[in-house]
Amino acid sequence: MPKDHGIGASSKRREDVRFLSGRGVYTDDMALHGQTYAVFVRSNVAHGRIKSIDTSAASKMPGVLAIFTGEDFKDVGGNPAGWLINSRDGTPMREPKRPVLAHGKVRHVGDAYAAVVAETYNQAKDAAQQLADDSDIEELPAIVDMKKAVADSSNRVHDEIPDNLCFDWGWIEDNRAAVDAAFKSAPHVTTLELVNNRLVPNAMEPRSSIGEYNPGTGDYKLTTTSQNPHLTRLLVAAFVLGIPENKLTVVAPDVGGGFGSKIYHYGEEALVLAASRKLGRPVRWTAERTESFLTDAHGRDHVTKIEMASTKDGEILAIRTETLANVGAYLSNFSTATPTFLHGTLMAGPYKVPHVYVNVKTVFTNTAPVDAYRGAGRPEATFSIERIVDKMCRELNLDPFEVRRKNLIQPDQFPYTTPVGLVYDTGNYQATLDKLIELADVKNFDKRAAASKAKGKLRGMGLSTWIEACGIAPSNLVGVLGSRVGLYDAATVRVNATGNISVMTGAHSHGQGHETVFAQIVAEKLGIPESSVEIVHGDTSKIPFGMGSYGSRSLAVCGAAMTKAVDKIIAKGKKIAAHMLEAAEGDITFEDGKFSVAGTDKAKTFGEIAFSAYVPHNYPLETLEPGLEETAFYDPANFTYPAGAYLCEVEVDPETGKVDIASFTCADDFGHVMNPMIVEGQVHGGVGQGIGQALLENTSYDENGQLLTASYMDYAMPRADDVPFYTVDHSCVTPCTHNPLGVKGCGEAGAIGSPPAVVNAVIDALHRGGHTHVKHIDMPVSPARVWSAING
Amino acid sequence: MHNFDFVKPATIADAVKALSAEGAQALSGGQTLTPTMKQRLAAPSLLVSLTGIAEMKGVCMGDDGLSVGAATTHATVAKEAAAHYPALAALAGGIGDPAVRNRGTIGGSIANNDPAACYPAGVLGSGATVVTNRRRIAADDYFQGMFSTALEEGEIVTGVTFPVPEKAAYVKFNQPASRFALTGVFVAKFKDGVRVAVTGASNNGVFRWAEAEKALSSNFAASAVEGLTVSADDMIGDLHGTPAYRANLVKVLTKRAVAAAQ
């Protein structure tokens, strides 16, 4: 029988009570005495030189309190890149300053070059319009296409960077010659050029920030839509505004989704703090949806040529890729890590391929910054690999299931060292593939295809066997590789006098369900009800210094820290129990919420020990401090490596090119699962976003750098009827070998594994329908593109 | 959004009078106007609501066909026209989402004449008559290109009268993002011939596909249009489809509408 509480139970999400009843408190919900409104003046050209900004008329308009331009911030720091990448020749990446407000030049449509603060929102809007009218910006030719950007040094996003190149990275450069040699002698080479399309994250809650400065204390508070408040505090304090960390509190309250886009610090956060300091009043800003489209860090945007060397019977011998990765106009905080260490290191996939070489050139363009978005680099790698495996199978007339099976790393080969620098600790890729074949009822595909044909539809199935790396770590290794931050996490477990518990976590929940799952884990370990555990997150004045939530790291890293802190609580509890029970500490056991003297019926409940810790009348005060509160930091020894196999079936309408997802089946190995319901929900959401990327989402800039898809009128997000009822399985378990919970992370898996399954299925359907000339269709595989491919 | 004044007259005469003021703008369901105002792309000083005028609301079957008041919502048409003109009711029931259908009106739709709107195809395909505060305008004369109609200054649509065909259907192919009609085809078979109206496809707005009408008038079967070709000249090309793709959809959807007609 399934458990009804603790680890492994599908406990209902306690946070949903407030979310579903309208009682969540998001940044924009907070009304503050004396609050003022900031509105940003944003460039409507992609590239331009700021000749003048005349503030005289706007500053006299009703309600206007302050106007800021780039000039006001020219002497403070820029928003830094979080990861230093060196080019193949050893030179460090080019790192242009990313100012709070654009200064000198505007570099993408939506780039903020001024801000107005006024008594009301409408007054600020009116003045911002006036300021826009009174600004003289000389439009320069826009740099949009990456290939042209690197070829033309006469036109530069940043004047000091001649070829618009941030870096030219080779991974692993020393292996390049051996990889090239493997290609030269290979019996077969498959080549594919493909696009990982740019995506707009589209969190349901737009970004929002409130700055509060208290002139009486000199304290600052930033309430903001962040996935990691401590990182934001560090960036604002140490790099941008120079506020001492101890004088700045950052609060990320309820946050309505992030998908990566709220990891980063943005200039708006610095502006509201600086404006509040100037005015001595709270300053607030919330993005309009169009601002979200224009200025949230976008995702993906790779153009890749991938080659695969193989034998004639499908044994993979080598993989070689050349990628242009768009970083947009400025370096967002993790924009340099995403196309490199989150992408190139995954380019062996789940396969025992001996030779891999990855080249990535990152390019500045006059477009919104691009950074990590659900999956971050791993979807790009997975799409490239899984598309070319399928193409190789077609070219050699081989079965895609069998070719994958033949190449998968075998269970007895773990730990497995890949040629791209990772050590996969554990896995059983055959098991998830077998599970998938069973669950997806592959053997009866032909019957379903016949039924589709009778309706005039072409049915196809597409496979993807994927692996990813979560919980990026350890800090000392990533430091060597260029990371400027640590990648540990932290938790404080505070046992209250009456035995209930507050857990302060460095991880931040913006939809994931931490408040439920973390409570399940603590309750299980301490043998107390889940309802006795409260999870506190998102406020730097309450929580230990943690790195927030992204990269499917919360459970694998912060969950591990929390587990360590609980272990410390138990250890101290044993000391207290030994004193109270007049026994040796070594004789005390802890089980089911009770400290017992082994071999006797003498015991104290967890609640009695907690009470004694805070009312220490009968307590070993000479040797033990009172109180029962422990903090632990955890820095993982390795990444975790979730893996799985996905199968998508589609029906294609050959007359219109419309693709319908007929079924989508997932067999995942996430290690131990803490809450199956939440894990399945994460997979549903991830696959939904993957289907969005594969079929619908098309971020399109025209040649002038205007974003053509800046609203839901033209940017297609998946809706409920675009996705099927999923079949999701996570019964294949190989526990992570290096974290105490044996967990791997599930948040991004769906978005990583699904796009190639969808596109492979479409190509399969077209081939089965006789359209064998179609080798590839770039995402999004829209009806018009499918129809053009069929008729092209 | 900028500030504006708002009036909700109870008669057509009062509405026309109010609209004569400088900066006045008629407001029906507001499904285009309100978002435009929120984006500050329109800033009328006075909004004259047409939804408080009783004689402009409702669905009524009469001798000359089905009359629909201009301020009747899509949801009401979907429900109340179903017994009389199922194809029109289905068209109305397929516009947007429930929120749009409960606010948006037929008069607002055809006065705006968005090239991707559904109603223009239904009105033109039915050979309906657009009734205004001044005159009755045949659908063939009313639609004059993208966002352009025969309406004159001070003239408002008060209703539309639809002759009810023997058989009809509207089939649209959704633009993936907005779910407006990337292309939509309304086919109506009358005793004296067939009308085929196409929305979403042409740079000139809703239009009649004359060759298909001719072919279907002699043989009302999907196969009758099989041999016809649709020129891609003047078709819309954008992110969601090339002119050739839309030309293809015109033919595919016409066949499907004929097959679905009832």
UniProtKB/TrEMBL annotation, chain A:
Alphabetic keyword roster: Molybdenum, Oxidoreductase
Keyword Nucleus: no
Pfam family, one: MoCoBD_2
SUPFAM superfamilies associated with the record: CO dehydrogenase molybdoprotein N-domain-like, Molybdenum cofactor-binding domain
Every Aldehyde oxidase/xanthine dehydrogenase a/b hammerhead domain range: 21-141
Coiled coil: none
Any GO MF annotation of the entry: iron ion binding
Protein name, UniProt field: Xanthine dehydrogenase family protein molybdopterin-binding subunit
Originating organism: Paragemmobacter kunshanensis
From TrEMBL, chain B:
Signal sequence annotation: none
Domain FAD-binding PCMH-type per the UniProt entry, residue ranges: 1-167
Keyword Oxidoreductase applies: yes
This protein's name: Xanthine dehydrogenase family protein subunit M
Record-annotated membrane-spanning stretches: none
Keyword presence, Oxidoreductase: yes
Gene3D superfamilies found in the cross-reference section: 3.30.465.10, CO dehydrogenase flavoprotein, C-terminal domain (3.30.390.50), Uridine Diphospho-n-acetylenolpyruvylglucosamine Reductase, domain 2 (3.30.43.10)
